[in-house]
Amino acid sequence: MGARRIVSVRKTLLALVGCLLLSGCGAEREGARGTSTASSDPAPAPPTATPEPEELYEADATVLESEQHGPMLCLGGILLSLPPQCGSVPVANWDWDAVEGEESLNGTTWGVYHVVGTYDGESFTVVQTGQHEGESWRPEPVYQSPCPEPAGGWVADPDHHTQEQDSRAHTYARSRPDYVISFVDHLDEELHEFSPVVFVAVFTGDRERHESEIRKVWDGPLCVVERDAPTDRELRRIRREAEASLAGLELEMLGSSTGGVPPQVEIEVVADPGGAGQDALDARFGVGLVELLPALRPVE
């Protein structure tokens, strides 16, 4: 993701973008809007689990060493400069001679690797390295219409019923207090973002009225459903509460987001030893509502 040689700059930037997609950095997803206020509820009790000295963790991450700091794992965001700038967890025993594919520029050396090692809560000690294959360990969310396809199929105008024309429908949906999420289901996988879409909106009630109002601003394929789920506003409040509880749980946050299907809060952290942090959040908010995504994953 950088350049020991100028000819590698393009390859470097593409790899950096891939890492950023993995890192999340708190980006909002489609349909995740609203306001939030922190709750006065007490934070969960701190977990008793701490990193075991011999437990092995793995990660796909950039390793970067600069004139300002030694080798570090970049588990959060990466500044897209040349050379790049990042660093989350120091690596205690990194050896550039033992790996391939690193690049250097202006006193900074970096590369993307699959690393396995131990973590003591402050630094990472490598026991094995390999090449990062560029595939995410996290499955991509599936945004698919929950409504059955009408007899004869969805009728859509490829010039007017695309995601470029659905902004007014999203605006209406997000302005409702019982709004849960809205998204589009692309009807042509080959055209993807350029294809006609089904506009999907989920509310906690009053489906017929919402469908009637959306029809005033969207005449394409439409799916409006009711779900017993947290509203977007509730989910944003839960996100704030969960983030505020991380210090008491001895967890270091890398980024967070709301949205998804089903809607939930995702919080990226450096590590969650023994899953104690996830257990505490499940006990407070309910199983599956707040999901921790540790960048350092225990090796199975």
Task: Please render the helix and strand layout as text.
Elements: H1 9-23, E1 56-65, E2 72-74, E3 89-90, E4 103-105, E5 108-119, E6 124-131, H2 167-174, E7 179-186, E8 197-203, H3 207-215, E9 222-226, H4 232-245, E10 253-259, E11 264-269, H5 276-285, E12 290-294, E13 297-298
Parallel strand pairs: 8-9, 11-12
Antiparallel strand pairs: 1-2, 1-5, 1-13, 2-3, 4-5, 5-6, 7-8, 10-11
Describe the structure.
This protein is an alpha+beta fold and 300 residues long. It is built from five helices and 13 strands. It folds into two domains: 1-140 and 230-300, no CATH class; 163-226, GMP Synthetase, Chain A, domain 3 (2-Layer Sandwich), CATH 3.30.300. It has helices spanning 9-23, 167-174, 207-215, 232-245, 276-285, and strands at 56-65, 72-74, 89-90, 103-105, 108-119, 124-131, 179-186, 197-203, 222-226, 253-259, 264-269, 290-294, 297-298. Strands 1, 2, 3, 4, 5, 6 and 13 form a seven-stranded antiparallel beta sheet that branches. The protein has a three-stranded mixed beta sheet with strand order 7-8-9, covered by helices on one side. Strand 1 (56-65) and strand 2 (72-74) form a beta hairpin.
